[in-house]
Amino acid sequence: MDILYLVIPCYNEEAVLDETKKRLEKKMKELMKAKKINKYSKVVFVNDGSKDKTWEKILKFHESNSMFSGVNLSRNRGHQNALLAGLMTVKNDADMVISMDADLQDDIDVIDQFIEEYKKGNDVVYGVRSSRKKDTFFKRNTALMFYRIMEKMGVQIIYNHADYRLMSKRALEALSEFKEVNLFLRGMVPLIGFSYTTVLYERAERFAGESKYPLKKMLAFAFDGITSFSIKPIRFFLFLGIFIFFCSLIILIYALIRYINGAVIWGWTSLMVSIWALGGLQLFAIGVIGEYIGKVYMETKQRPRFIVETYLK
Prior knowledge:
The protein is α/β, with parallel strands linked by helices.
């Protein structure tokens, strides 16, 4: 039987961890009893520099039951780095690894289906939301817009998939070859190219605590995803610049003809509007280009994406 590890990033999840531990322990025991996974399978909580008692709880879980393990990062590195830290730390100990959030929104009952699909030969199994009825109108439509934009940018991404997925040891080894600092795992995993499938599930409400992804972080995450995987925004401003240049030539010719014919060129309002519009567009374009340059700068430093302070085996 294959060894399964569950990897769960945690940042200030003190309020929900007891219930998460309870439900996952029950699920793991059911899987072991049904002989779907090895008895040495574990649940690994990754503490991403939490400021509450998250790590203290993880330590207690480990002391009371060897099924529970923990990875403590030296400081807060963000959800994607914490998730990658967990995956890379346990990849040599497990045959398959399932990543999920600690807030119990991911349906743990579909883990059985994940394992079944893995045994059919799939190296990656994506958990995909069957619907977004529980989301607000704004969140539902902005999420849909994000996926469509990513698709238009040429990024291969699974619709309505977050980070609830199963990966085989082989897939994790392939993922470890990706050395970039700017992480967007939802875009990186499909690049591996091994056999994959999807499993539908209904996403529940958060059990306790507050969401770690408010609107500001969601927008930053989406922008990182776009700029980490596509140079189309830069190309867009290149073609826009060419278009505006030709428009300016047309306006110049028109102005010269008016001047030769002796017409008075009023143009004060249109001139001011043009200056402000073009100035704003230029600043925005420079900002987008600067974002890419900043990412190149961070990549060239080759700083570690995470530092593991403690790994409880």
